[in-house]
Design goal:
With 292 residues, the protein is α/β, with parallel strands linked by helices. The chain has one domain: Purple Acid Phosphatase, chain A, domain 2. The protein contains 7 helices and 12 strands. The chain has a 6-stranded mixed sheet. Strands 4-5-6-7-9-8 form a 6-stranded mixed sheet, covered by helices on one side. Helix 6 links the parallel strand 5 and strand 6. The relative contact order is 0.16. One fe (ii) ion binds next to loops.
């Protein structure tokens, strides 16, 4: 089975937005885009990455949020088009990030316009997190930490209801000996980022992860490549998918063999080839085994 992880594409172009749509926090987000982000996150880089990801023929593409910058309807529609050309809803699992639900009204739009990806396979009108997808020998669980925050804050929160549901899901996966891969936008443990960007209930999540450790956790939000071992859990952050300096994605091949599971993870990052063409090259490869 093959998974691909990518995150934080920040794909939208704010060049044509009307100033009337930029009230409150959106003004500062827009100014940040004008000053920095529009030079750092390029649609052309994301297009290259999308082509490379499609060529990997993954069983499941995992996207951990921040598709847009300031949660405007025009951006969320643009992102819906990008999702469609990347993979079908049954082959792409998505959780939202803080930039997707940036301001009032964004969350409703995200749920409506990305719903077929966010809640694929969920019962009818059920649009609550966590969401679960069962693959052959691997259970994917997605949580939402995305919430609208005050100016200059980019924190996330799971909340008690989601933590309780997640606890039940991890417990039942453990009792069924089902390895779990968790998708979350914010870094899951305390101290992984500063107070302005952290997950506010990371301590509660850490306790859960200690009791029922997933095999893998993929997250975003930090915009750099990083791996960390936490007990039996491998925690991976991948750089922003449109970053002009280090756009990346991960390819994870998972093979059950008897009573162990073999993992092979390759990190692929953007680089210039001999003819000055952008391509994605493997910059790191790791293999490991876990009890099945
Ligand atoms: Fe981001
Ligand atoms: Fe983020």
């Amino acid at each position: 089975m093959r998974l691909v992880h990518l995150t934080d594409p920040h794909l939208s172009d704010l060049g044509n937005v009307s100033y009337a749509s930029l009230r409150g926090k959106r003004w500062s987000g827009y100014l940040s885009w004008r000053k920095n982000r529009r030079k750092k996150y390029l649609p052309a880089v994301l297009e290259k990455l999308s082509v490379a990801v499609r060529a990997e023929e993954a069983d499941q593409v995992l996207v951990t949020g921040d598709l847009v910058h300031i949660g405007l309807e025009s951006e969320i529609r643009q992102a819906a088009q990008w999702l469609k050309q990347l993979a079908a809803p049954d082959q792409l699992m998505l959780v939202p990030g803080n930039h997707d639900v940036y301001a009032q009204g964004s969350d409703e739009l995200v749920r409506r316009l990305w719903g077929e990806y966010l809640f694929h396979g969920c019962d009818g009108q059920d649009t609550r997190f966590p969401v679960v997808r069962q693959l052959d020998g691997l259970r994917l669980i997605g949580v939402s930490t995305a919430c609208t925050t005050p100016l200059f804050m980019a924190t996330g929160k799971l909340g008690q209801t989601q933590l309780s549901s997640l606890s039940e899901l991890l417990k039942s996966a453990a009792s069924e000996h089902q390895p779990v891969c968790l998708l979350i936008h914010h870094p899951p443990l305390p101290g992984m980022t500063n107070w302005r960007k952290e997950l506010s209930d990371a301590e509660s999540l850490q306790k859960l992860l200690e009791r029922f450790p997933p095999a893998l956790i993929f997250h975003g939000h930090l915009h750099h490549n990083r791996e960390q071992q936490f007990g039996n859990t491998r925690i991976c952050c991948t750089a922003a998918a449109s970053s002009v300096s280090d756009a990346s994605y991960r390819v994870v091949d998972i093979e059950p063999r008897g009573d162990v599971i073999n993992f092979r993870m390759r990190l692929k990052t953007i680089a210039m080839d001999d003819q000055d063409k952008l391509q994605f090259v493997t910059v790191d490869e790791q293999t490991w085994q876990q009890a099945g």
